[in-house]
Amino acid sequence: MPGEFDIHLPPPRQLAAEFGLVQRRGLGQCFLDHHRTLDRLVRLGGVEPETAVIEVGAGPGYLTARIVRRTPHVWALEIDTRMKPIHERYFGGPPNVAPPVRFLYGDALRADWPALLAEIGDRPYVVMGNIPYQITSPLIDLLLHLRPLPLRCVLLVQCEFAQRLAAQPGRKAYGALTVKTALVAAVRQGLFVPRRMFQPRPRVDAAAVVIEPRRPPLVDAESLPGVFSLVEACFTQRRKKIINSILDSKRFGDDRNAVAALLNQAGIDPVRRAETLTVGEFIRLWDAAAAHAEQSPAIPHTASTECPESGRA
After folding, report:
1. Entry pTM
2. 12-213 and 224-312: identical CATH topology
3. Average pLDDT, the chain
4. Is residue 287 within 8 Å of residue 266, measured between CB atoms?
5. Any long-range contacts for 284-287 (C-beta under 8 Å, 24+ apart)?
6. Phi-psi bin for 83: left (phi > 0), alpha (psi -120 to 50), beta?
7. Less packed terminus of the chain by CB within 10 Å, N or C?
């Protein structure tokens, strides 16, 4: 039961001295040991006693220790096996009580997620974690393709990345990453965490982003690759007029009048820029193009369904 597992880890410096642990920046090991902030992250996840939680990048277990106060159904992924002695000491649980956390050691991007979800069974689940920058984009893509989908994901990421995910049209941060993610999930920025709260202190601030998969997505799965390709084409040169971006991409050929007609059919002024278009307008443009394709050579559907790397957004 929640409340049975009142786990207290020593601060990062003390833990490092006790276990001879040297944090590896290459693994994004900047630990957060601020109880009030960690509790707010757990609340953002809507974790209830019967909710399962998959934590990505558990580290020593600072967030893990706050999660088990709400639910004993926790699976924690950690790539660094040097954390295992810490987990064994602090998360073993009381005698004759099953430990509240099952730790799995390895790369989260290469984990056997189907087997993990099968172990969780029918229990609704949430994904949480303090995510290293270098795996953020591929991890989000992986999570949004899981079956069954999580109730939500609460990920602590670099602040700039969180702003890109949750940006509104017309904002500088709004880009292909924003639109492509919004097609399959509702995204909001949930909590700002300044860099001074981490040990060691990273170069940038962090923010929690809450991602709730859409059931179903805004466009059908069969059309997603084509819509993603269209979005990427429009943002290739984001400061250009939308008609010129599309013409440069050759996405719909090189007939300016035909492309202008498609934009007008979608109710989009051809002189606007991609960064001003809403997600709904991108869908309308795709629908207009799909209708046009029935009467002309097929529009290519050769895009990846992956979210772009943050640098491309």
Report:
1. 0.86
2. no
3. 88
4. yes
5. 285/230, 286/219, 286/223, 286/226, 286/227, 286/230
6. alpha
7. N
Amino acid, single-letter form, for residue 241: K
Q: Which fold has domain 224-312?
A: Helicase, Ruva Protein; domain 3 (1.10.8)
Q: What is the DSSP string of 44-58?
A: HTT--TT-EEEEE--
Class of domain 12-213: alpha beta
Give the span between the Cα atoms of 154 and 42, in whole angstroms: 8
> pLDDT (tens digit, 9 = 90+) per residue, 217-265?
899 988 998 899 999 999 988 889 999 999 998 888 889 999 999 999 9
**Domain extents in the chain:** 12-213, 224-312
CA distance 8 to 66: 9
Per residue in 99-152, pLDDT (tens digit) is 889 999 999 999 999 999 999 999 999 999 999 888 999 999 999 999 999 999
Question: Which has the minimum average pLDDT: 150-159, 251-260, 294-303?
Answer: 294-303
Tokens 């601030």 sit at which residue? 205
